[in-house]
Design brief:
The chain has 116 residues and is mostly helical. The chain contains five helices and no strands.
Length: 116
Amino acid sequence: MDKYRPGFLPKLVSSDPLHKKLSRQKNKRGFDDSEVWLLNETIALLIIPRLKRFIKINKTHPDNLTLDEYNFKLCFILKSLEDFYLYEENQKSFFYKENLKKSLVMLSDIWFDLKC
């Protein structure tokens, strides 16, 4: 589960004064300033395990998609988030950046298709 920990606190050695400061923040409010600084990564790392679970238990889909189409989009979004945010070397790759952009378009199609 460590790979899903956002921010840079996990990368600091415990003797670092910044580690102590961020640890106090995390204990006090549940997150530290490094998670706010890297908000895109933080949100992605929070979404990944929840999206995995949603894909496993979900049995419904939007009216404009079949369940297979919906699951394909969800799996593409999940894979794109994992590929980009869990593997630092992929963050320099045009391919992974483009997949992430495509997944964000899919995500907006899925969520904003709701008639409110």
